[in-house]
Write a structure and sequence with these properties.
Length: 448
C-alpha cells in the first residue's frame, strides 16, 4: 500500500509485467555486462519489452537466479584489460542474435570505453560516448570539470604521499573526507573515510592505505546525500528523479544506499545537473550525486556515474523508463523523447544490504556493538514501511533469498549454486550453444 499516489508513479502500483516467453526472439538478445542489483532491474524490464536476456559474470551478484535471465556468459577474463573484450568480440561474432550490449558494472563500463575498437561495429552498445565515460570516471578531473561547468564542490586536493596527505589535512581543515580515485577500490573496506578531527586522522591514517597511488582529500559537507538519476539527450536532461538517502550500508553514511525517499527535485540540484550535462554534451543515462547542507546553504558535487544507478529500481518505479531509454537513445539519438521530472513521494529499501552493512560496519569499526540493536530496528522498520524493495518481486522472488544464501558461508553458497542450477534446468552458469538460439536476419527491433 503506497502512502501517496501521483500520475508519474502510477506504474509502481502494478505488478511488474510478466516476462516475455523465452522463445520469443523478435527483438533478439540483449547482453548485460555485470551481475549485481541493477542487473535484475534491467533484465526484468528488457524481458518485459520482448528481448531475450543474457548476462555476463562479474560483480558477484545473484542475477542468474532471476527467472528473466535466459543465459549466462562465463566471461573468461577480468574486464580491466583487452583480453576480456577480445573474448567478448569472439562471443559476439559467434552470436549474431545478440544485437545489443549494455555495460553495467563499472569495470565493464570503463573497459568498453577503452576497448570498443576491438568489438564488432554492427552491434548497439547502450552506453554514453567513450570520451564522456572516461571523463566522468576520472574523479580528480571531474572536480575541474565541475568548476568549469559552474557546479559547486567542496575544496579538495589530490595527494600521493603521506606527507602530502597530512599537508592537505592541515590546509583543508576538519572535518574532511578521504576518497579513493575509484569506487572499486575502497579505503579500509569503506567507500570513503570521514575524518572529523586530528586524533581520528592520526589513528585512521597512520599508514598510507594499501592499493592506492593517489587519494582525494576534500572538506566534508555535512547533511544528506542526494542522488539524481537522469537520462539526457545531447546535453539536455529529459528524465530526472531526486532521492534523499536516508541510510547506507555503512554506519558512517559513506556506503551504498539501502533506504531512501524520492522528493521533488530541488531547484539548485536541477540547475547544477542541467549545467553539468550541457557542459559535457552528455547523451545517455547516468547518476549525479550531491552532498546538501541546507542549514549552511551549501551544496557539493560528489560524482557523476556514467552508468545505471546501483538502485535502478528507483527511477523505474517512478516511470522514468531509463532502461528502455538507454537502448533507444543509442539507437535513435535524435528521436524526440518526452521530458519527465518525477515529483517523488516514495520510499525504497534494500534489506539485505542494510543487514549485511551492519556486519561490515562492525568489522571496520564504523559501528559499536551497542549501536547494533538500533541499526537492526531501523533496517526492519525500513523493510516494513518501504513502498517497494529494490530487488524483491513476488513475480521473480529468488534473487533476494539467494543473496542471503550466498553470504551464509560455504554451505549457503553450495545451496545457492544448486538452487540456481535447478532454476535454470541445468548446471550453474550453463550457456547453450549459439546454434540453439534464433539467428535473426536483421538487427533486433528497438523497444518503444
Amino acid at each position: 500500500m503506497f502512502k501517496r499516489k501521483c500520475p508519474i508513479v502510477i506504474l509502481s502500483c502494478r505488478r511488474p509485467p510478466p516476462p516475455a516467453p523465452h522463445a520469443d526472439a523478435r527483438r533478439g538478445t540483449v547482453l548485460i555486462l555485470g551481475n549485481f542489483r541493477p542487473t535484475i532491474t534491467l533484465a526484468r524490464r528488457l524481458s518485459g519489452l520482448g528481448y531475450r536476456v543474457a548476462m555476463a559474470r562479474g560483480g558477484g551478484g545473484v542475477s542468474d537466479s532471476s527467472r528473466v535471465i535466459d543465459e549466462v556468459w562465463e566471461n573468461p577474463e577480468p574486464p580491466d584489460g583487452p583480453a576480456c573484450f577480445e573474448a567478448l568480440a569472439r562471443h559476439l561474432r559467434a552470436r549474431p542474435d545478440i544485437g545489443i550490449v549494455v555495460p553495467l558494472w563499472e569495470p565493464f563500463v570503463l573497459g568498453l570505453a577503452h576497448h570498443r575498437h576491438l568489438l564488432p561495429q554492427d552491434r548497439l552498445y547502450a552506453t554514453p560516448d567513450d570520451e564522456i565515460v572516461r571523463t566522468c570516471l576520472d574523479k580528480v578531473g571531474m572536480l575541474e570539470v565541475a568548476a568549469r561547468a559552474g557546479v559547486p564542490s567542496a575544496p579538495a586536493r589530490t595527494v600521493a604521499t603521506p606527507e602530502e596527505l597530512r599537508e592537505a589535512a592541515r590546509a583543508i581543515g576538519f572535518p574532511l573526507v578521504v576518497r579513493p580515485l575509484s569506487s572499486e577500490a575502497p579505503i579500509a573496506g569503506r567507500k570513503a573515510l570521514i575524518v572529523r578531527d586530528a586524533p581520528t586522522f592520526d589513528a585512521a591514517l597512520a599508514r598510507w592505505p594499501e592499493g592506492h597511488d593517489r587519494l582525494i582529500v576534500q572538506r566534508f559537507v555535512s547533511g544528506p546525500r542526494y542522488n539524481v538519476d537522469f537520462a539526457a539527450q545531447r546535453g539536455r536532461p529529459i528524465r530526472m528523479v531526486a532521492t534523499r538517502i536516508l541510510a547506507t550500508n555503512s554506519h558512517d553514511g559513506t556506503g551504498i544506499d539501502v533506504h531512501g525517499r524520492t522528493e521533488p527535485l530541488p531547484d539548485d540540484l536541477r540547475l547544477y545537473t542541467e549545467r553539468m550535462l550541457a557542459h559535457l554534451g552528455y547523451h545517455g543515462v547516468g547518476l549525479m550525486q550531491f552532498m546538501v547542507d541546507r542549514p549552511r546553504g551549501e551544496v557539493s558535487f560528489l560524482e557523476l556515474n556514467p552508468r545505471f544507478n546501483g538502485n535502478t529500481a528507483v527511477p523505474e518505479a517512478h516511470g522514468l523508463d531509463l532502461v528502455r531509454l538507454a537502448v533507444d537513445l543509442a539507437a535513435h539519438p535524435d528521436r524526440e523523447e518526452a521530458e519527465l521530472v518525477s515529483p517523488g513521494g516514495l520510499t525504497h529499501a534494500w534489506t539485505f544490504g542494510a543487514l549485511r552493512g551492519i556486519a561490515v560496519s562492525l568489522g571496520t569499526g564504523a559501528m559499536r556493538r551497542r549501536e547494533v540493536p538500533g541499526a537492526l530496528w531501523a533496517a526492519l522498520r525500513a523493510a516494513v514501511t518501504a513502498d517497494y524493495h529494490v530487488m524483491f518481486r513476488w513475480s521473480d522472488p529468488w534473487p533476494g533469498p539467494m543473496q542471503a544464501l550466498r553470504s551464509a558461508g560455504a554451505p549457503g553458497r553450495a545451496l545457492a549454486r544448486w538452487r540456481g542450477a535447478r532454476l535454470k534446468g541445468g548446471r550453474p552458469g550453463a550457456v547453450p550453444d549459439a546454434g540453439s538460439h534464433p539467428q535473426p536476419d536483421a538487427q533486433p527491433e528497438i523497444a518503444r
